[in-house]
UniProtKB/TrEMBL annotation:
Function: Component of the acetyl coenzyme A carboxylase (ACC) complex. Biotin carboxylase (BC) catalyzes the carboxylation of biotin on its carrier protein (BCCP) and then the CO(2) group is transferred by the transcarboxylase to acetyl-CoA to form malonyl-CoA.
Localization per Swiss-Prot or TrEMBL: Cytoplasm
Residues annotated to bind Zn(2+): C29, C32, C48, C51
Originating species: Sandaracinomonas limnophila
Chief subcellular location: cytoplasm
Gene it is expressed from: accD
Name of the protein in question: Acetyl-coenzyme A carboxylase carboxyl transferase subunit beta
Length: 280
């Protein structure tokens, strides 16, 4: 019965004979499973043309989406984390930073840039979830604070795009202090009468929700984004009650008065522009 058993292990097709689509040509929507050409996906601002699922994107994509002719200047691009607590978990914090920098090409979990959006000068701080879960440490707080300073100095609106798992545990108390620091800076912006719009994207949780993300003159969100402070399990254990279904979705949060509106990413630039024109 030797013809029933495979003599050689593994698939024997040589690489050059394999018929595969070139890498990165197709995108499969994780929600409805439809395959979409990556070029079409990009044209639709990385949303699904079939079910409108909003793919998670980073600071680079938001800057390209919002700034006119993708022209912008990044502020403090080289600012990187120290290791004030000499923290080690499964690996040393300094090593984790180094390997994440290498993997993502980013220096930390937020980038700030200035430029024009439909001709209006604007400062944008956008978070990158790929950098240690978009966690807020000293660099995130400082870069946002400096972005706000720039807006104050040049009297131009500030847009914060949050996507974060919360505070960065490797910097413990230093991370938590960023909540107070950014909140205080935003208070100065409010005092000067300069608009601050906060866009919450999937997911926005923890110390980020509890500070700058919810302090906008307008708090807006992308459809379907997860927005919350603690995870469902922790809340359930604390209050000892079952939680309503989907209670941390943008739609639920909007219905309960925590958001001003939900905006489709394809309309983001135009909606933000009209909003800022109204506020001027
Ligand atoms: Zn889809």
């Amino acid at each position: 019965m030797s013809w029933f058993t495979r003599k050689d292990k593994g698939i024997q097709t040589p690489t050059e004979a394999k018929r595969e689509a070139p890498d990165g040509l197709w995108y499969q929507c994780p929600s409805c499973k439809k395959a979409i050409h990556t070029r079409e996906h990009r044209v639709f601002a990385f949303t699904c043309s079939n079910c409108n699922y909003h793919e998670k994107i980073g600071s680079q994509e938001y800057f390209e989406l919002l700034f006119d002719e993708t022209k912008y200047t990044e502020l403090d691009p080289m600012m990187g984390s120290g290791d004030p607590l000499e923290f080690t978990d499964t690996k040393k914090y300094v090593d984790r930073i180094k390997s994440t920098e290498y993997k993502t090409g980013l220096k930390d979990a937020v980038r700030t840039a200035v430029g024009n959006m439909n001709g209006l000068p604007l400062t944008i701080s956008a978070m990158d979830f790929s950098f240690i879960g978009g966690s807020m440490g000293s660099v995130v707080g400082e870069k946002i604070a400096r972005g706000i300073d720039y807006s104050l100095k040049h009297k131009q609106p500030f847009l914060m795009i949050s996507r974060s798992g919360g505070a960065r545990m490797m910097e413990a108390g230093f991370s938590l202090m960023q909540m107070a620091k950014t909140s205080a800076k935003l208070a100065l912006l409010a005092e000067a009468g300069i608009p601050y719009i906060s866009l919450l994207t999937d997911p926005t949780t923890g110390g980020v929700t509890a500070s700058y993300a919810m302090l906008g003159d307008f708090n807006i969100s992308e459809p379907g984004a997860l927005i919350g402070f603690a995870g469902p399990r922790v809340i359930k254990e604390t209050i000892g009650k079952d939680l309503p279904k989907g209670f941390q979705s943008a739609e639920f949060v909007l219905e309960h008065g925590f958001l001003d509106f939900i905006v489709d990413r394809k309309d983001l630039k135009d909606k933000l522009t009209s909003l800022l024109q109204m506020l001027q």
